[in-house]
Amino acid sequence: SLETGKMLIEQLEVVTLPATKSSELPVRKYARMNEIPVHGWPHLVPYGHFDVGIIVSFGSLLSDLLIQQFPYGVLNLHPSLLPRWRGPAPIFHTLIHGDQVTGVTIMQIRPTRFDVGPIVMQQECAVPPRCTADKLGAILAETGAEMVK
């Protein structure tokens, strides 16, 4: 809550891709376990129903119509220090190229291209020696979650 006692987040819902026949996506499983409403992609809500949208590891362009449904826009948590490794697979590119430092970027989404909106915030993270993609992904996920708070 804010200092005023008002709730910072009044409503939280998740939109994700549908589960496959072989497995359920971790975000869908987490949302269900924590009783957070889950919707399948694509999902449109009335303008102003939510103040801001947040996307993470989402490989689809969002339409201008969808972005405009959120009065404060849509933010993307990207697991790199943009503009480096803009686009897909930034964690793999970080490791393949031997980067010793990476990080998380929070940026505003634009409708026609990936990872090109204004940067809101960035935080650096050291890449541990002999780090795996799974381990680095977990580090960057924790960092991104803290940044959103």
UniProtKB/TrEMBL annotation:
In terms of domain of life, where is this protein from? Eukaryota
One GO molecular function term of this record is: methionyl-tRNA formyltransferase activity
Coiled-coil annotation: which residues? none
**Cellular component terms per the entry's GO annotation:** mitochondrion
Formyl transferase N-terminal domain sequence ranges = 51-145
Q: Name one Pfam family in it.
A: Formyl_trans_N
SUPFAM superfamilies in the record, alphabetically? Formyltransferase (SSF53328)
InterPro entries in the cross-refs: Formyl_transf_N, Formyl_transf_N_sf
User: Could you identify this protein by its name?
Assistant: Formyl transferase N-terminal domain-containing protein
Species lineage: Eukaryota, Metazoa, Chordata, Craniata, Vertebrata
